[in-house]
Design a protein that fits this description.
This protein is α+β, with helices and mostly antiparallel strands. It has 3 domains: 99 residues, Double Stranded RNA Binding Domain; 81 residues, DNA polymerase, domain 1; 186 residues, Intergrase catalytic core (hpI Integrase, Chain A), CATH 1.10.443. 50% of the residues lie in helices and 11% in strands. The protein has 16 helices and 10 strands. Strands 1-2-3-4-5 form a 5-stranded mixed sheet, covered by helices on one side. A 3-stranded antiparallel sheet has the order 8-9-10, with no helix packed on it. The chain starts with a strand and ends with a helix. About 1% of the residues have low confidence.
Length: 412
């Protein structure tokens, strides 16, 4: 234990010094009860110590992490805590009571809100969808501080059985992150995380590329969907009379074609606004993709699709709320995509496989991996290396063609 004047400078000096072998405590030489500690893991935390008016052992209240809470802010919080204790108000017990009332749903809502403020809106939307669909129906009403690993494991198993192993794993990942954040914010006890250690499903990287024949099957199914329509039992209509056919909204088919022609992610197309389409230069100017601001170059076929579309509201792909004051983008394409792939006899193809197929065609056409990475908006060259096998095939064909001509010359 050491006594120092706790300031921004002195705390910084301590945190920059050699890591301690055990947790080391530092107390302020001016405000009794105010201090911070540093762990061997190099984590620093401000705290306030006080003795309740009724007597008994001292209590210690964590005020916040060093780096998140400033020294002067921690000093003021400690002063209030110690003053309230002198008046008979136990803030540590009050915080414990507050934590006890936080449900899993509230914790997730707070985490999503924080993500929306600190990260990307699209990331927060994804967390919110995972929470509402896969987590809250099973454990949303449970007290966050009382949730057990067994309950999380049971949720994981149920989600895996109904929505698939990938969805189950993502649900546990989001819940684990929410608890880690909640511990730092004192919504749950720090270090308490019932999602930690849960057995998850083994995941294998899945790369599905459409062949030329499969693309033709998909194209024929889309033409049928938007013209004569599918028979009711194959379409996307629950209440249509038997014997009739169901046509699909032109914007649904346009969305799928744009995904195929641009290699964009699903949300990049569904959230695309007309104001982001630059017809003059033939590009999309996305202000907030997964990897930040992004320019998507459009082939002429994609420009023709966009040019022929009817504009309904501000989003290119119109939703049910298109043109209204509270307009929102279309949420997904799950039901129409399932019907179209079923009609095309491609039940194992996901929407994201269209992006893989775009990249694969580029690699087979002889485009280098850096070019493909640029077109897809990859932030890391490592991500693009999955298409190296297709690029190798293109290189093999190219070198055979070049070598054949040279051999023809030199061999007479």
């Amino acid at each position: 234990m050491a006594t120092i004047r706790i300031t921004a400078e002195s705390v910084s000096d301590v945190m920059k010094s050699a890591r301690p072998n055990r947790t080391t405590y530092y107390f302020d030489d001016d405000l009794a009860g105010f201090g911070f500690y540093r762990t061997p893991g190099d984590t620093g935390t401000f705290f306030a110590e006080f003795r309740p008016v009724a007597g008994g052992a001292k209590k210690r209240l964590k005020l916040g992490r060093i780096g998140i809470l400033k020294a002067n802010e921690a000093r003021e919080a400690a002063r209030k805590t110690i003053a309230n204790a002198a008046l008979g108000k136990d803030l540590a017990q009050g915080r414990a009571d507050e934590r006890a009332s936080v449900t899993v749903k509230l914790l997730l809502d707070l985490y999503v809100e924080r993500t929306r403020d600190k990260k990307k809106a699209s990331t927060a939307d994804g967390y919110e969808l995972i929470s509402s669909v896969n987590i809250m129906p099973h454990i949303g009403t449970a007290k966050a501080s009382g949730l057990t690993r067994r309950e999380v494991q049971a949720m994981h198993t149920k989600v895996g059985a109904t929505r698939g192993k990938y969805a189950a794993n993502r649900a546990v990942a989001v819940l684990k992150a929410a608890y880690a954040w909640g511990g730092k914010q004192a919504h749950v006890p720090e270090g308490f995380n019932p999602a930690s250690g849960v057995d998850r499903y083994r995941e294998e990287a899945r790369e599905r590329f459409l062949t030329a024949v499969e693309m033709q099957q998909l194209g024929e199914a889309m033409i049928e969907a938007e013209t004569v329509g599918f028979p009711v039992d194959a379409g996307d209509a629950k209440h249509a009379p038997k014997g009739q056919r169901v046509t699909f909204h032109p914007h649904v088919i346009a969305a799928i074609r744009l995904l195929m022609l641009t290699g964009c992610r699903l949300r990049e197309i569904l959230h695309l606004r007309w104001s982001e389409v630059d017809f003059e230069r033939g590009v999309l100017r996305l202000p907030d993709s997964k990897t930040g601001r992004k320019v998507v170059f459009l082939p002429q076929a994609a420009i023709d699709i966009l040019d022929a579309m009817t504009r309904i509201g501000s989003f290119v792909i119109a939703s049910d709320s298109a043109g209204t004051k509270d307009e929102k983008p279309r949420a997904d394409l799950k039901r129409p995509w399932a019907a179209i792939t079923k009609r095309a006899r491609l039940d194992d193809v996901r929407l994201h496989d269209l992006r893989h197929s775009f990249a694969s065609i580029g690699a087979e056409s002889g485009l280098g991996l850096p070019v493909i990475g640029s077109l897809l908006g990859h932030s890391s060259a490592q991500t693009t290396k999955r298409y190296a096998h297709a690029a190798d095939e293109a290189s093999r064909r190219a070198v055979d063609a070049i070598g054949g001509k040279i051999a023809g010359h030199i061999n007479g």
